[in-house]
Amino acid sequence: MALLITDECINCDVCEPECPNSAISEGPEIFEINTDRCTECVGHYETPQCVAVCPVDCIIIHPEHVESREMLLRKYHRLVAGEGRE
């Protein structure tokens, strides 16, 4: 599963620096999560760090990008190896 920032985002910018995969960036209106880079912090932490620091609880599981823990771990290994870097 990748995560999604909902329109309840207040653009506080606390989530972006917490992402170990650089998956969060400022979008046109609210912060956005790149699903190709989001591993829900699998491989780095026990829980998603953006969710842990979000003051308005606006980060949810992305309904269109459902991935198992194993898939997230494979994505983590790909990102750490340098594949898929933008």
UniProtKB/TrEMBL annotation:
Single GO MF descriptor: metal ion binding
Obligatory cofactor(s): [4Fe-4S] cluster
GO CC annotations on file: cytoplasm
Domain 4Fe-4S ferredoxin-type: 1-29, 31-64
Keyword Metal-binding belongs to the record: yes
Keywords: 4Fe-4S, Electron transport, Iron, Iron-sulfur, Metal-binding, Transport
Protein name in the entry: 4Fe-4S dicluster domain-containing protein
Gene source species: Pollutimonas bauzanensis
